[in-house]
Specification:
- By secondary structure, the chain is an all-alpha fold.
- 64% of the residues lie in helices and 0% in strands.
- The protein is built from 13 helices and no strands.
- Its cofactor is [4Fe-4S] cluster.
- It catalyses: L-serine = pyruvate + NH4(+).
- GO terms for molecular function: L-serine ammonia-lyase activity.
């Protein structure tokens, strides 16, 4: 890649007169040895899976195997159809779509990790709701995915995208930054504005711990995806309005790294702290453990009926 930092990303785009998406597509093709057309088709396939996941989450039973979560996206959509929302219809729809994809993941459905399975709902939630709102075609959305990918590449190589390494700030936070920057470019923002959106988004999630109840990517992960989609939209609007990240976005990424390595182990996807260790969280863990033990017991063999004994 011709860039390792967000500042270098903007400089390359400005020097060559390219959008972030165009630069990323060219660099990805060069790295893979495939043609840009091949890389674009591959990303188009990923986008179709995202759309399928949204549709499935809104129409099918997404109850997780644990029974802890499911159908919240459908509840939000039903609420939207019957009442005026506090959030506003468009942002609420993005939230519902993000919940839908995350619930498909929890119910063992097919998703695209963007950048991880635990944060898989944020980019589809933002992208697919925006596509419906603005009437964009799939090609435009795929270009947005390349923009998001460039941002994710920088974050992953300078900080974390894994909750186990850097807490939920790294997982959900990175996805929010990727979605915010891409949304800014999709709406006509400059590379510099897109990178400001990343900084604005990441600052709002610094210090967010990873505390999955029962060790499952369900509680609070799913609702954080919903909130994350809304935060991404807010960051994009701020950047498009001319709001700048006073702390340069690369420095925000560095802070996320420093916070992540300082975070206690119990707050990094171990289920040893945070919500996982509340009284209710512990009860859920105990219940799941008992269910697991019951399922692992061998079934007792029934004695044959006397009539069939020799």
């Amino acid at each position: 890649m011709r860039f390792r930092t967000l500042k270098q990303l903007v400089q390359c785009c400005e020097a060559e007169g390219l959008s972030i998406a165009e630069l990323m597509l060219a660099d990805q093709a060069h790295q893979s040895g495939n043609s840009p057309e091949q890389e674009f088709r591959k990303m188009m396939d990923y986008y179709q899976i995202m759309k399928e996941a949204v549709a499935k989450g809104l129409t099918e039973d997404t109850t997780s195997r644990s029974g802890l979560t499911g159908k919240d996206a459908q509840r939000v959509m039903s609420f939207m159809s019957n009442q005026e929302t506090s959030l506003g219809e468009e942002a609420c729809r993005a939230m519902a779509y993000a919940l839908a994809v995350s619930e498909v993941n929890a119910s063992m459905g097919r998703i695209i990790a963007t950048p991880t399975a635990g944060s898989c709902g944020i980019i589809p939630g933002v992208f697919i709701s925006a596509q419906q709102r603005f009437g964009w075609d799939d090609e435009h959305m795929v270009r947005g995915l390349f923009c998001a990918g460039a941002i994710g590449y920088v974050v992953a190589n300078n900080s974390f995208v894994s909750g186990a390494e850097g807490g939920c700030q790294a997982e959900v936070g990175s996805a929010i930054g990727m979605a915010a920057g891409a949304m800014t470019e999709l709406r006509g923002g400059t590379p510099a504005q897109a990178v400001h959106a990343v900084g604005l988004a990441l600052k709002n999630t610094l210090g967010l711990i990873c505390d999955p109840v029962g060790g499952l990517v369900e509680i609070p992960c799913i609702v954080r995806n919903g909130f994350g989609a809304v935060n991404a939209l807010a960051a994009a609007d701020m950047a498009l309005a001319g709001v700048r990240s006073v702390i340069p976005s690369d420095e925000v990424v560095q802070v996320m790294y420093e916070v992540g390595i300082s975070m206690p182990e119990k707050h990094r996807e171990t289920a040893k702290g945070g919500l996982a260790q509340t009284p209710t969280g512990k009860k859920i863990m105990d219940s799941l453990y008992r269910k697991g033990k019951d399922k692992s017991k061998p079934e007792a063999k029934a004695e044959p009926n006397e009539d069939v004994k020799k």
